[in-house]
Every structure is written in structure tokens, then in C-alpha cells.
């Protein structure tokens, strides 16, 4: 389904975010559906700025501002923070970002949020990216997190699922009724999910940068996610499968990113038994291919 990315704005809206006519994409999905990981990919490949309403609320509280104290007080009393407060934080963040393309993650949480966003900002989303994932799979992912949240227990997780189904799913259904939803099968591996996400953004004429440092960093990120690798300079990270010890790098901005690298890589299994060792000076794409080829031999 192709979506028109033109952003309609209310004539009455006076905020500068509306005047800039930004492209806003709402990113929705249940807890554990993988929204955060996919948002990181989208930011890297398509130049969007990523905002989480929850993070903005927590940041405002941490700032100690008058508004933050009010939000904290309401939360402590078990009250729901008014939608207008959250929307104004999002609007301020967009205005100050210097960008005109935004991913808003986990928002709107309900129909009231949706209506408030349109009323306060005068902005309608270009489309909604909905990560559809079975509850059993989301539960499995959350429980298998290496560093789970304090509330990552069965009872709390299922309450979060229930809230999503009762409050957020109707938002998805509303936008689906007006042809603004791109549904992604999020039960698949991360790389396959992102291929579907890329197709959505490519279909709206956003250009992926197919070369250079962005692609190299993206490939490394994919390797990290797929084989739980860590890339460190002269060191080993807990649980890593590969330990690179990077030497000099020509035309390089980062230790591991560059057009040509002098490097020494020790390929090791999770029990840290050395598999092979090599020293070479080769172009980055070949280095990645070499790493990927050896990584395929690492048992799950």
C-alpha cells in the first residue's frame, strides 16, 4: 500500500512545528514487539528523529522544572497525565530538534491522545507503522531480555498487553479505517522485519544511503543483533562472540569504521575457545564478509 506523505495541518494551528509541515510517523505495537530496535534502524537509514512520549515525560521530571514537578506529583497520586501535557512536550521536542521528520514511538496510546495531538499541533501523521506480533512471542521476548525492566514479570507483562489491546489497538483500527496503517509482521527475525520496514519507507520516496559509513555501521549493527557480537577496541565485552583489536585506520572517524583497516580479529565461541586468528589490511566490505563468514560457524 502506498501512502501519501504530505502532512495536512490545521489552518488554526499557530505552533512552529505545524508551520514547518513536518513528516510525523506514529510507531505502535505491543510491549516486546521490537519497536525500539526498528526505530533505531529507521533513524540510521532514513534520517528521522525518534521520540518516545514516555522518555520525554521522564526527562521532564528529571529536569526538576515546574512542569516536571507537576507531572511527578500526578504520577505519584496515580493520576493520568493530561494528553495536552504530553503533546506539548512532543511539540517542543520537534521544534527544538532541527529536523522535519519524526518517529513518535508508543504514541498515541489512546483515542484521547490522538485527538489531542491533532488539536494542539495541527499535524496529522503521514502514516502509522504498526508492529503486529503475537502475545506469546512478545511475552517470550520480554522474559528473555538480558537486562529486563523492573516490571518484567508475567503478571505485569500481561497487564501491559491488556492495556495495549483496550487502549492502543483502537487507535490502530482508526487509522486503518482511513488507509494510514502499514502493518508489519514483527514475529520474524530483526533483519527480516527491517526489510519490510525499508520497503515502506522506500515506497514513500525516502532514499536509503547505499554506501559509505552509514551502511558500514548498519552492517555491524546487524551482525551484533544476529550473533550477539560486540566490537571493542583492545578488549572483550561480556558475552561477545568476536573480539576485534583494532590498530590504525585510514580515513576513519571511529575505531571500527573506515575505508581500510589494519586489524587483528580473534574469532571465539561463547566459551571463549579460540576458533581462528588473522591479521590483514583489507577494504571494509571484505572485512565484514570475513567476519560474517566466520560468524556463521559459531554455534547458537
Automatic annotation (TrEMBL):
<dbReference type="GO" id="GO:0016776">
    <property type="term" value="F:phosphotransferase activity, phosphate group as acceptor"/>
</dbReference>
<protein>
    <recommendedName>
        <fullName>UMP-CMP kinase</fullName>
        <ecNumber>2.7.4.14</ecNumber>
    </recommendedName>
</protein>
<comment type="subunit">
    <text>Monomer.</text>
</comment>
<feature type="binding site">
    <location>
        <position position="58"/>
    </location>
    <ligand>
        <name>a ribonucleoside 5'-phosphate</name>
    </ligand>
</feature>
<keyword id="KW-0539">Nucleus</keyword>
<feature type="binding site">
    <location>
        <position position="160"/>
    </location>
    <ligand>
        <name>a ribonucleoside 5'-phosphate</name>
    </ligand>
</feature>
<comment type="function">
    <text>Catalyzes the phosphorylation of pyrimidine nucleoside monophosphates at the expense of ATP. Plays an important role in de novo pyrimidine nucleotide biosynthesis. Has preference for UMP and CMP as phosphate acceptors.</text>
</comment>
<keyword id="KW-0547">Nucleotide-binding</keyword>
<dbReference type="GO" id="GO:0005737">
    <property type="term" value="C:cytoplasm"/>
</dbReference>
<feature type="binding site">
    <location>
        <begin position="106"/>
        <end position="109"/>
    </location>
    <ligand>
        <name>a ribonucleoside 5'-phosphate</name>
    </ligand>
</feature>
<dbReference type="Pfam" id="PF00406">
    <property type="entry name" value="ADK"/>
</dbReference>
<dbReference type="InterPro" id="IPR033690">
    <property type="entry name" value="Adenylat_kinase_CS"/>
</dbReference>
<feature type="binding site">
    <location>
        <begin position="32"/>
        <end position="37"/>
    </location>
    <ligand>
        <name>ATP</name>
    </ligand>
</feature>
<dbReference type="GO" id="GO:0006207">
    <property type="term" value="P:'de novo' pyrimidine nucleobase biosynthetic process"/>
</dbReference>
<dbReference type="InterPro" id="IPR027417">
    <property type="entry name" value="P-loop_NTPase"/>
</dbReference>
<dbReference type="GO" id="GO:0009123">
    <property type="term" value="P:nucleoside monophosphate metabolic process"/>
</dbReference>
<dbReference type="InterPro" id="IPR000850">
    <property type="entry name" value="Adenylat/UMP-CMP_kin"/>
</dbReference>
<feature type="binding site">
    <location>
        <position position="145"/>
    </location>
    <ligand>
        <name>ATP</name>
    </ligand>
</feature>
<keyword id="KW-0418">Kinase</keyword>
<keyword id="KW-0963">Cytoplasm</keyword>
<keyword id="KW-0067">ATP-binding</keyword>
<dbReference type="GO" id="GO:0005634">
    <property type="term" value="C:nucleus"/>
</dbReference>
<dbReference type="GO" id="GO:0005524">
    <property type="term" value="F:ATP binding"/>
</dbReference>
<comment type="similarity">
    <text>Belongs to the adenylate kinase family. UMP-CMP kinase subfamily.</text>
</comment>
<dbReference type="InterPro" id="IPR006266">
    <property type="entry name" value="UMP_CMP_kinase"/>
</dbReference>
<keyword id="KW-0665">Pyrimidine biosynthesis</keyword>
<keyword id="KW-0808">Transferase</keyword>
<feature type="binding site">
    <location>
        <position position="188"/>
    </location>
    <ligand>
        <name>ATP</name>
    </ligand>
</feature>
<dbReference type="GO" id="GO:0019205">
    <property type="term" value="F:nucleobase-containing compound kinase activity"/>
</dbReference>
<feature type="binding site">
    <location>
        <position position="113"/>
    </location>
    <ligand>
        <name>CMP</name>
    </ligand>
</feature>
<feature type="binding site">
    <location>
        <position position="149"/>
    </location>
    <ligand>
        <name>a ribonucleoside 5'-phosphate</name>
    </ligand>
</feature>
<feature type="binding site">
    <location>
        <begin position="79"/>
        <end position="81"/>
    </location>
    <ligand>
        <name>a ribonucleoside 5'-phosphate</name>
    </ligand>
</feature>
<dbReference type="GO" id="GO:0006221">
    <property type="term" value="P:pyrimidine nucleotide biosynthetic process"/>
</dbReference>
Amino acid at each position: 500500500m502506498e501512502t501519501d506523505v504530505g502532512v495536512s495541518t490545521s489552518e488554526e494551528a499557530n505552533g512552529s512545528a505545524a508551520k514547518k509541515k513536518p513528516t510525523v510517523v506514529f510507531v505502535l505495537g505491543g510491549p516486546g514487539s521490537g519497536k525500539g530496535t526498528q526505530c533505531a534502524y529507521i533513524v540510521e537509514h532514513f534520517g528521522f528523529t525518534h521520540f518516545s512520549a514516555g522518555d520525554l515525560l521522564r526527562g521532564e521530571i528529571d529536569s526538576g522544572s515546574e512542569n516536571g514537578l507537576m507531572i511527578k506529583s500526578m504520577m505519584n497520586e496515580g493520576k493520568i497525565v493530561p494528553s495536552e501535557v504530553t503533546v506539548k512536550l512532543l511539540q517542543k521536542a520537534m521544534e527544538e530538534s532541527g529536523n522535519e521528520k519524526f518517529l513518535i514511538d508508543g504514541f498515541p496510546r489512546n483515542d484521547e491522545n490522538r485527538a489531542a495531538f491533532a488539536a494542539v499541533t495541527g499535524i496529522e501523521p503521514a502514516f502509522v507503522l504498526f508492529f503486529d506480533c503475537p502475545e506469546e512471542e512478545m511475552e517470550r521476548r520480554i522474559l528473555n531480555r538480558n537486562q529486563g525492566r523492573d516490571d518484567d514479570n508475567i503478571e505485569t507483562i500481561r497487564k501491559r498487553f491488556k492495556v495495549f489491546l483496550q487502549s492502543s489497538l483502537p487507535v490502530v483500527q482508526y487509522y486503518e479505517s482511513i488507509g494510514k496503517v502499514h502493518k508489519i509482521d514483527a514475529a520474524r527475525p530483526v533483519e527480516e522485519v527491517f526489510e519490510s520496514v525499508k520497503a515502506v519507507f522506500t515506497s514513500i520516496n525516502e532514499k536509503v544511503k547505499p554506501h559509505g559509513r552509514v551502511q558500514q555501521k548498519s552492517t555491524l549493527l546487524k551482525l551484533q543483533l544476529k550473533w550477539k557480537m560486540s566490537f571493542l577496541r583492545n578488549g572483550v565485552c561480556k558475552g561477545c562472540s568476536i573480539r576485534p583489536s583494532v590498530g590504525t585506520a585510514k580515513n576513519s572517524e571511529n575505531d571500527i569504521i573506515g575505508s581500510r583497516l589494519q586489524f587483528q580479529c580473534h574469532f571465539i565461541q561463547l566459551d571463549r575457545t579460540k576458533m581462528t586468528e588473522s591479521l590483514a589490511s583489507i577494504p571494509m566490505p571484505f572485512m565484514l564478509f570475513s567476519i560474517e563468514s566466520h560468524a556463521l560457524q559459531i554455534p547458537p
